[in-house]
Write a structure and sequence with these properties.
Number of helices: 5
Largest sheet: 9 strands, mixed
Helix content: 10-25%
Number of domains: 1
Structural class: alpha/beta
CATH topology: Rossmann fold
Strand order of the largest sheet: 2-1-3-4-13-12-11-8-9
Distance between the termini: 11 Å
CATH superfamily: Class I glutamine amidotransferase (GATase) domain
Strand content: 25-35%
Order of helices and strands: EHEEHHEHEEEEEEEEEH
CATH architecture: 3-Layer(aba) Sandwich
Shape: globular
Length: 204
């Protein structure tokens, strides 16, 4: 199996590569859209702002090939952190910006009513998977994962929510729609449980 990591200039490529290598998988860093044809699965990492990320994906001509691979060829994809948010139809971060449109939904700002809760949400927090979630097979409900974010994905169809987390109020911390997956947390920085999430994606 070849797992491609999409390099569009805004992802923690090294951490994801290291995580895959520890699981015995050789990652393929995809520097050009045509490189998608070399792999069986895709990982879309992301660090930074939604609008800047979409600008990079557009400038480097990734949008069409990603959509074709995922929607037409049914290639499994895992979005991580900002990479998960990019799967949405749009985001309100810095003004409305269109996303990849792979899972119906919108990215909105976290709103922590408790003044003791800081934004961005940084650190370890408990994740509560849905019972039928593929990403969380063999992972106990309430397991902690590592987060760094200020925005969250709100799926249009609640059946796309694979897990939730509470930070002031509950938000969707993982998504699944067929062969399309996303984790708002960083599995590559989340110890044994994070490695299991990535392993579950590899076994899809």
């Amino acid at each position: 199996m070849n797992v491609g990591i999409i390099n569009y200039g805004m992802g923690n490529i090294a951490s994801v590569c290291n995580s895959l290598a520890r699981l015995g998988t050789t990652p393929v860093v995809l520097d050009e859209p045509g490189d998608i044809n070399q792999v069986d699965k895709l990982i879309l990492p992301g660090v930074g702002a939604f609008a800047a990320a979409m600008a990079n994906l557009t400038e480097f001509r990734w949008v069409g090939p990603i959509r074709d691979a995922v929607l037409n060829r049914k290639m499994p994809l895992l979005g991580i952190c900002l990479g998960m948010q990019l799967l949405a139809d749009e985001s309100e971060e810095g003004g409305i910006t269109n996303g990849l449109g792979l899972i119906k939904g919108r990215v909105t700002a976290l709103r922590a009513k408790d003044s003791s809760l800081r934004i961005p949400h940084v650190g370890w927090n408990s994740v509560y998977p849905m019972n039928d979630s593929v990403l969380f097979l063999s992972i106990a409900s309430g397991t902690d994962f590592y987060f760094v974010h200020s925005f969250a994905f709100e799926p249009k169809d609640t059946s796309s929510t694979a897990a939730t987390t509470k930070y002031g109020h509950p938000f969707t911390s993982a998504i699944e729609r067929g062969h399309i997956f996303g984790a708002q947390f960083h599995p590559e920085k989340s110890s044994t449980a994070g490695a299991r999430v990535i392993q579950n994606f590899l076994e899809v």
